[in-house]
Task: inverse folding
């Protein structure tokens, strides 16, 4: 346990069958300045990927899918396990999506990625926290979103590397395109690193469609609306590239392209 | 003969914001002609090409441009492309995430759609791409590269001429195509342009220097200075400028 352990809480959590619900801070403004080891949570919203296991799954929320939330809010990852979770939030879906990952075994490899497409009055909030508790693991977070119409999107992403978790590689990227005046996007990345031999980075942007790109494409005869679609699809591509299965990826690409054309690309 | 005229610019004034850059341009280009537009930095050369291609933020305040009987200024950039205008950019734009294949397929099929034709068959398109890439000595693997991303200066300009070959324009505008090119790249680009030229097509070569015009020999040379054409003559004007500079105008 870390320096701030709370004996009572620890005891409580170690009771068999005990479940505790905990919300991730939606808008973390301060970090504690020193490492706080949070106890592991195991409840009905926990996905446990045990030692050596592979968990590779895509979740489509909204659109043609009946799913409206992820079946888990926290993932516990064992030694040598591989996790690849891709979440696509389709237009018309308002959602608060918390996702915490605890990496508790060495040699684990975690990818959590997501895409959110908002063209109306959606409110989308994504809160991730990836906690490296042991050495020699890798994690990649990649979330890209497009906000059109009057939608409002927020991304809060955090990486925590414990003092003992040397040789960690942890990366986080969040890019947002705001394509109409009424839409808003906010991105708050956070890194808390208590080990010294690690590679960590984060990159966050909120931007608009590049007009020089648009003019270049139009000067080649690509109509304005089609140029915008191409730009949006290229913006989304890195997230879809995380889908390992090729035929599934192609199927999702056409679904996403259709959604972009229908809900986002109208001038 | 009047029906030989491809492009006719009359009394063109254009501004960027409040600042007037073009201050009354008259220019007539007939089929088959190659015109050079030369001039010092800041003369308005790039503004002229931007106005011809319909770049946003450039405002035409006076004058007209007629292209093959149509009012060019009333057309969108994509409509101008479909009508047969192509500009090789001085600084080609990088488009991350879009491959050259996807980019050109979208462009070629958009033009076909405007002409009422069906999209090109995938096999035919790839064959055409391979042929035109070889023409400017682009390696086949460039087909899968993202447009201009990580390209050298020479590769970007070759990619411009490749696109020109694919779109087969009636009027090509080469905006400072020689800038940033070494001698070998210059020769490949210039030979590409030269072999695309036919008696039915015309070109405007915009340049600061003589060297590109050693390869692409113009029929008519204009000097643009402070937003106006201050001299028009045959190709001998190029040597005069080389010798005496732009100060004589």
Result:
């Amino acid at each position: 346990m870390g320096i701030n352990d709370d004996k009572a809480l620890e005891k409580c959590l170690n009771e068999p069958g005990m479940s505790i619900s905990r919300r991730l801070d939606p808008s973390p403004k301060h970090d504690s300045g020193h490492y706080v080891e949070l106890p592991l949570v195991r409840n009905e919203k926990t996905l446990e990927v045990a030692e050596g296991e592979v968990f590779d799954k895509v979740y489509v929320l909204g659109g043609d899918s009946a799913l409206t939330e992820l079946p888990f809010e926290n993932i516990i990852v064992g030694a040598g396990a591989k996790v690849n979770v891709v979440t696509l939030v389709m237009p018309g879906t308002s959602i608060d999506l918390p996702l915490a990952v605890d990496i508790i075994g060495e040699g684990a490899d975690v990818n959590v990625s997501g895409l959110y497409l908002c063209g109306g009055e959606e409110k989308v909030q994504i809160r991730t926290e990836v906690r490296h508790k042991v050495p020699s693991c890798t994690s990649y977070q990649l979330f890209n979103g497009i906000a059109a119409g009057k939608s409002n999107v927020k991304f809060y992403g955090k990486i925590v590397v414990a003092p003992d978790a040397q040789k960690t590689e942890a990366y986080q990227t969040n890019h947002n395109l705001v394509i109409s005046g009424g839409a808003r996007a906010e991105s708050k990345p956070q890194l808390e690193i208590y080990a010294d031999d690690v590679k960590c980075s984060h990159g966050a942007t909120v931007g608009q469609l590049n007009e020089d790109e648009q003019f270049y494409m139009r000067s080649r005869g690509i109509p304005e609306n089609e140029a915008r679609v191409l730009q949006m699809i290229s913006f989304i591509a890195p997230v879809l590239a995380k889908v390992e299965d090729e035929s599934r990826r192609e199927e999702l690409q056409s679904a996403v392209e259709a959604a972009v054309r229908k809900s986002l690309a109208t001038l | 003969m009047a029906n030989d005229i491809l492009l006719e610019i009359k009394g063109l004034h254009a501004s960027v914001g409040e600042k007037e850059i073009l201050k009354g341009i008259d220019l007539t280009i007939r089929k088959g002609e190659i015109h050079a537009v030369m001039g010092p930095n800041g003369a308005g050369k790039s503004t002229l090409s931007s106005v011809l291609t319909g770049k946003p933020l450039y405002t035409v305040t006076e004058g007209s441009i007629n292209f093959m009987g149509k009012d060019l200024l009333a057309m969108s950039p994509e409509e101008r492309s479909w009508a047969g205008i192509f500009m090789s950019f001085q600084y080609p734009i990088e488009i991350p995430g879009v491959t050259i294949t996807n980019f050109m397929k979208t462009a070629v099929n958009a033009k076909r759609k405007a002409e009422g034709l069906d999209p090109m068959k995938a096999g035919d398109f790839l064959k055409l791409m391979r042929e035109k890439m070889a023409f400017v000595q682009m390696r086949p693997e460039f087909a899968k590269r993202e447009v201009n991303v990580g390209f050298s200066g020479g590769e970007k300009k070759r990619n411009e001429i490749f696109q020109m070959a694919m779109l087969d324009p009636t009027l090509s505008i080469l905006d400072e195509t020689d800038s940033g090119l070494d001698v070998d790249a210059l020769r490949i680009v210039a030979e590409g342009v030269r072999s695309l030229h036919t008696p039915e097509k015309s070109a405007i070569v915009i340049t600061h220097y003589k060297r590109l015009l050693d390869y692409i020999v113009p029929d008519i040379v204009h000097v643009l200075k402070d937003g106006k054409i201050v001299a028009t003559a045959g190709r001998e004007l190029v040597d005069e400028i080389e010798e005496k500079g732009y100060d004589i105008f």
Observations:
- The helical segments of chain B are 45-53, 77-83, 100-114, 122-135, 153-167, 183-196, 211-215, 236-244.
- The first helix of chain B runs from residue 45 to 53.
- The first strand of chain B starts at residue 5 and ends at 16.
- DSSP finds eight helices and twelve strands in chain B.
